[in-house]
Each structure stands twice: as structure tokens, then as C-alpha cells.
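haha ok so turns out i had the wrong file open the whole time. this is the CORRECT one, sorry everyone. sequence first:
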Amino acid sequence: FAGTAHVHAHVQQPNSMSSHGHMMRSASASASSSTNKNGRSLRRDDTKQTKGIMTLSDDEKEQLLTDFHSRGLHAQRHRHLQTAIGWKPLGNEIQASSDRDRAGSAVSMNLDGSRVAIASYNHNNGQGHVRVFDLVDDVWNQIGRDLDGLGGDSHGNSVSLSNDGLRLAIGAPNHANYMGTTRVYTYDTDSDSWIGLGSDIDGLRSNDFQGAAVSLSGDGQLLAIGAPEGGGGNQLKGYARIFKYDDTQSRWRQFGNTLEGEYYQATVGSACALNEDGTRVAIAGKFHPNDIDNLMRLSGHVKTYQLDNSDPASPKWVPMGEGFFGDCYYQLLGDSVDINAVGDRIAIGASGNPFNTGGKAAVYQWLEEEWVQLGSDIFGLAIGEGFGTSISISADGGRIAVGSPKFDDLGDDKDFLDIGQARIFDYIFDDTSGKEDFDWVQVG
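then structure:
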């Protein structure tokens, strides 16, 4: 991929878009796809572009999307207004540092969407770097220096900003013979500089790929890190660990037990998401087998945990429910995962292509000590589009954004025609086709 990157926002044009529905105490599961009511997908018009890496700000007004294409990478920022549909650019373009950077391969926003971190894991032949921008007077301005990796680190494979945008975690899974490391920075406003916060957090052994996924709590004090190929013995079981910053000793300490995969190729830690206060975490293993006999490999798995801090000297992460398994081969359930602020709703992407579905997404709510599906499954529109490769849920859990990096309008799986798209859904009352119930409805 050669070329530049750009970031801009879109403001919706006036029309009659529906507003959010209320939180429901009942939930239903259905095999039908969610309805598109006055909704418009965000996509590129030219071929060989791949749109679909995105994140939502917690106030739901901002959405960041990135495009890969034959000339390079683009990152786009969109602003949503509740009274309108359509998208209008906001802010100037942000250019990539150099060709083949893959700028925008990972992105993260602060709470209100005023600050964004854009990663380029392939910068300088795989060294990788991350840049952070603020929107001031409709212009994107970089703050601080480029945060560069070392050697072939793939520094920026994953990124996460705290709510205030003053702490930034960056994963570099290829560091030190693929052991992987995670680096955390704090922004000093007076000197306009990013300063390392504590020592690097390394994986446990070679080939762990630790840092493939990272997630900060809202205040930046807790950090979840995934190592999807860890576990030793080339088993690819994977693990995830949560760390807490010790202000008195200026270091990151592991907080609670290690969350390990149980089976061969479980790849636990391929994606992770902490809730607002860091008391709940969702951990995914997208290559996880469906059962202990290793049948239906690559079906995927997501499990959520809650902090048990009854003994402050020995905090523990305990499972919330049985977890979620993919139900067929190559479903890749957990390719992406996100959790809302309270931690009672999780969004899961399954980007695989069983039965030519093009991928799917689903949302679950914690009700009476179990996870219950909220609304219908949401399916991709075309074969092989990778719907669910990325997913983001709003703070209140009433909106999700889902990316399809291989969408191509023709409904085939030919890479050279990929344009990609992102779709946004609200959980609202749906009165189309005689449903008359709450469901996920495409908006914007």
C-alpha cells in the first residue's frame, strides 16, 4: 500500500432520522438481519479501497473510519447529528508520513471525540509509529511527536486512549522475537510531549505476540493486554492480562489472574475490551475451536470477566456466564469485541464467511446473571465482505458501528474490487415489515 492518509469528519444533513430507544429489560434473538431504515452506509467510491476500521466516541457524536486502498490509507472522521441523515466532511485531511505506512490500521478516540490516535504499524518497514491529533477550529493538528517503535516492532498494531486523551497505550506484538510489548505514554500539556509512563510491559516468552490487542479503562489506570499466540509449546492457546498503574512506584503491576486459553489454537487475547471503570473485561479468541475435540476450528470464542476485589491483596477475574462460541467452522466470532461503559452490553463481530453470510454482528445484555441477545443478528450484505472485522459500541450501549473492509458492491470475494464500508445501527423501535418491536436499525 503506497500513498497518503487523510482524516475528515462528516456532519449529517437534515431529515427524519429516529432517535435512540430506551434500555430494555427483555431481549430477543432472531436469525433475521436488522432493518435499514433511512440508513446509508459509508463507503468509498473508487475500487481497491478497504473501509472498515473504526471507533465511536463515547458521546456517539464522532466516528472514525479508515480506508486502505491502492494508493495508500485514508482515515476519515465523521460527526453525527441526531436530527439528520447523510454525511458531510468536517476538518482537513491528515496525510500519512510515508508510503506503505498502513496509517489508520488501528485508531482510538478520547471520550468526546476531540482527540484521536492514528497508528501506522508498517511505518519504516514494520517499525511502526503512532500520531495523535486534536481538532482545533476545524483543523486537525498533531500534538506531541511521532511515537516510533523499534526495529520490526509493528508498534501501533493496537492503540487505546483514556477518556481525557492524556494516556495512550500502544501494542507492538512483533517486538523481541515476537514476544511483544506494550508501551504507555502520558501527554504533558505544558511541554506538548508524550512521556513514557512506567516501563514497557513485555510478553512472557517468545512468539506470544503480546500487544496484539490493548484496552485502557476510562481513567487510564487499568490496562488489558492480549497475547493471542502465548501459552508455550506452539499451542497458540493465548492469554490476556490486566495491569494497574502503581503511582507510588511509577510502574505497571499485573492486577489479578492471567486469563488463559484452554485449547489448542484458542488464540485468547486476539481482541479485548475494558469497560469504563475497569471492573469488567471482554476477551476474544477468534480462532478458538468450538469444542474440546477441536472440531469446527476457527469458529471463535468470547468470554467476559468481572473483577472480584473482595480481598484487595488478591484481586481475581471471575467469568460472567459461559461465554460465546461460534457455531460453525470459520465464523471467526470475536474477530472484534467491545463493551459499553457500565459493562452490561457487549458487541461481538464475527467476520468469517460460513454459508456465504459475509459476516455478522450481535449485541448481548447482562440480565439476571446471564447474557441475553439484544435484538437480531446483523448480517453483512455481500459474500466475503468481512462484516464484523471491527466493531464499536457507544457508552450507553444503544449504538454500534461495524466495519466491512472487503465489501465491494458486487457480492463476490475478489480482492481487487474491494471498496469497503461501515454501517451504524441504533437499538430503537422498529415498526417496519410488521415487526413492531425494538431491534437494530441502520441509521446515518
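The radius of gyration is 20 Å.
again sry for the mixup
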